[in-house]
Amino acid sequence: MLASLFAGSIEVLHPMCLFLIMTGVAVGIVFGSIPGLTATMAIALFLPVSYQFSPLEGIALLISLYIGGVSGGLLSAILLNMPGTPSSVATCFDGYPLTQRGEGFKALGVGVFFSFMGTLISILVMIFVAPGLAKMALNFGHFEYFSIAVFALTLIASLAGKSLIKGLLAGAFGMACATVGMAPIDGVIRFTFGSQQLSAGLDLLPVLIGMFALSEIMSSAETSRIEDDTSIQNIDLKNVKGFGFSIAEFKSQITNMFRSAAIGIGIGILPGIGGSTSNLVAYSVAKNQSKTPEKFGTGIIDGVVATETANNATVGGAMIPLLTLGIPGDMTTAMLLGGLMIHGLTPGPLLFVEQPLFVSGVFVAMILANCAMLFQEFFGLRFFIRMLQTPKHILLPIIFVLCVVGAFGLNSRMFDSIIVVAFGCVGYLFLKLKLPVAPFIMGFILGPMVEIYLRRGLMQSKGDYLPFLTEPISGAFLLITLVSVILTVRKNIRSAHGGAGTQ
Amino acid sequence: MKNNMFRRLSFWIAGILVAGVCLFPAVSEAADWPTRPIELIVPYRAGGDTDFHARTYAKYLGKVLGGTVTIINMEGAAGSVAMQHLAASRPDGYRMVFNQDANMFTNKIQGGSDMDHNNFVIAAIGVRDDTSVLVAGKGAGFANAQDFLTKARAEPGKYSVATNIAGFSFFVVCKLEAFGKFSLNPVDYGGAAAMIPALLGNKVSLAVNSYGVFKQHIDNGDIIPLMLCAEKRNPNFPNVPTVSELGMPGAVSSRGYFFAFPKGTDQAIVKKFSDAVAAVQKDPAYADDIRKAYYLAPFYRDAATAKKYMDDIWTDMVKYQDAMRKN
């Protein structure tokens, strides 16, 4: 393995290839950090460009965009409370409170460092145990995906914040919004009110940009004339060293890091679930496992560590089925697959046999891109902070425009830009009513998964519900779901009683 | 006074210009076309087969037409969002859609859209995929096509087949069932990305898709190709028997990929584009690209014959509408 990695590095260590990696990561970070522009869009833009280069150079460029893009989302999440990409939704929860407390540099340092660690762990796992893991993923069929999605839905409870009822309401509303458009499988039209545009349903990204970025812009606009906004300005850059956190703090996060990396890789391997889910799941698991769950959401580094490790680990995870089986795990890897095919390369088991140099070249390129990401973000930290120190009345309109334009660019539809504005208003309403947004997003992502896998599972079993319980993996997840629900209900009853007692 | 004259002069010049543009738009546009990049809309996300064919074409068409062809991915509602968008576009020759006939027709049959090829000017059929194969996972236990036919006929509905209910592969399954006199249990898996792991993990016995999608796993021995839904064997994988050889010649099916302009597009532009597609077809580099990726041979129907080609496909598909609506 090491010998072939060495051979692979000789392939990659050309000035051109290194230049493409550096450029790719830099562009990826910029795309990732701007709400409305994503890694996926960066790859789509550079796909035609990548054909000009050799296959390895082309794919190195695309992978660098991917790695930079997934990580870049943390910058705006931490500094502006707007997730730069769907992968960094949960990074806002603790990252932004840290910034508000004046510990923005520390939050960024933690985010950047654990992004690097998450990617690194996942790449190592990919290099050494990829084939075995890919085989394991084959045991997951419709029944299993259904049960995983149901289990993940119960995590809404831990994302609900103070009021479980409001969390459940938001989650249910998210699931309802996701039913708009053509039903999966048979294409029955639902809730479109005769609009052809709505028959395509609501896309995740415009909804997400609206709910998070636009609503944040609106609420900032509301307060801009009342209070002097200094939340970003008060980041102290004078007395910080390194990444802004201590070795003791790093040690306290090791368990969290490995657990979140495992969640990220696991979710990355399973086709159809991606970084947008893994950061939320890792965040809620870290919160449930913590001795001090009440501190989550108030600005502790545990939350940032969990989400940034997990979403970056998803990159390596998603590459595993792509390279070993030729199966893209998410939209971004689907584009990488397209990029490879145009070069006449089909990823899959035979690629390892026929093109071992190319495969190890890809591995080395990923490691280099990860290092480039760490250096660029580390040395760029001060620059990013300065950039975002631009007064909000100048910065936010620019971001607003980018959000609307970005939503259009994603699928070339004006309709998506309208959706951004519409859900911006919904998000603002959520803020006013103190409804949590995270459960909404969870419901929006997972609701359709539950539906499609339930219906596909029932096709498989010819209408029999029993296999959902009797298939071992599926049954186990449903059991965990049940336990999780019972524990949540018990905890809530207790805290309700406890609350009543102290008052 | 001088100022006034200048105004009057400029008024006349502007008037003449406007009149000129209004009177001779067709002539000048068609002769110069294309003077700016042409948008080629792919109604699906980047990375799939339609996207591949469109991008491969864009590479060669740009050279032939002396302009740029830009790929725009616009997915939604199984392709009908893009078709609707095109129908509402200005017929100036700068916006077109590249789509699959079977997907558009399935959408119409299942009630998702009421559009078909008659709503557009079909400039050409540029790709035909006749490599649909019925494959089995290694664990399904079929030695060959004959073995499969015997077992499937003996136990109707026992074997599950992975397909895309909203797409071409379900139509292929319906046809195979009708002519093969067997019945399978169709299970929706969307695309190839989910079909392959299901076959490898023994979650499903059979699947239908283009041969190229399964190629590596067939070479590896994990997936067994049972039959090819074409009249003749494919020279790239001559070991796979055809449905005709197996006594079910009616089960042949293929999907065409067409280029569509909005209705009202200048015939000269359509002709020019159609000729460019024909020129790309003759380029050996293009033939090499599509053979390597999907084992296809160049295939071309010009604007005049494309309608008849698509009419025939529609007539064939509509016969199976009851079976296709069942799920």
Looking at CATH, the homologous superfamily of the largest domain in chain B is: Bordetella uptake gene, domain 1
- Kindly provide the radius of gyration of chain B, computed on alpha-carbon positions and rounded to a whole number of angstroms: 24 Å
Q: Work out the count of structural domains of chain A.
A: 1
Q: Structural class, from helix and strand content of chain B?
A: alpha/beta
What portion of the residues of chain A fall into strands of 2 or more residues? under 5%
Largest sheet of chain A, in brief, is:
2 strands, antiparallel
List unreliable stretches of 5+ residues of chain A: none
Strand order across the largest sheet of chain B: 2-1-3-10-4
Number of helices of chain A: 22
How would you spell out the order of helices and strands of chain A? HHHHHHHHHEEHHHHHHHHHHHHH
Oligomer: heterodimer
Helix content of chain A: over 70%
Give the proportion of residues in helices of chain B: 40-55%
Shape descriptor of chain A reads globular
Task: Give an account of the 3D structure.
The complex is a heterodimer of chains A (503) and B (327). By secondary structure, chain A is mainly α. Chain A has one domain (2-502). Chain A is built from 22 helices and 2 strands. In chain A, strands 1-2 form a two-stranded antiparallel sheet. In chain A, a hairpin with a 6-residue loop joins strand 1 and strand 2 (189-190). The radius of gyration of chain A is 22 Å and the shape is globular. The relative contact order of chain A is 0.18. The mean pLDDT of chain A is 87. Chain B has 327 residues and is α/β, with parallel strands linked by helices. Chain B has 13 helices and 10 strands. Chain B has helices at 2-23, 25-32, 49-65, 80-87, 101-109, 145-154, 168-180, 192-200, 211-220, 267-281, 284-294, 303-318, 321-325; strands at residues 38-42, 69-73, 95-100, 120-129, 132-137, 160-163, 185-188, 206-210, 223-228, 255-262. A 5-stranded mixed β-sheet of chain B has the order 2-1-3-10-4, with helices on both faces. In chain B, strands 7-6-8-5-9 form a 5-stranded mixed β-sheet, with helices on both faces. In chain B, helix 3 crosses helix 10 and helix 5 (101-109) crosses helix 12. The longest helix of chain B has 22 residues, at 2-23. Chain B is elongated, with a radius of gyration of 24 Å. Chains A and B meet through helix 3, strand 1, helix 15, helix 16 and helix 20 of A and helix 3, strand 2, helix 4, strand 7 and helix 8 of B.
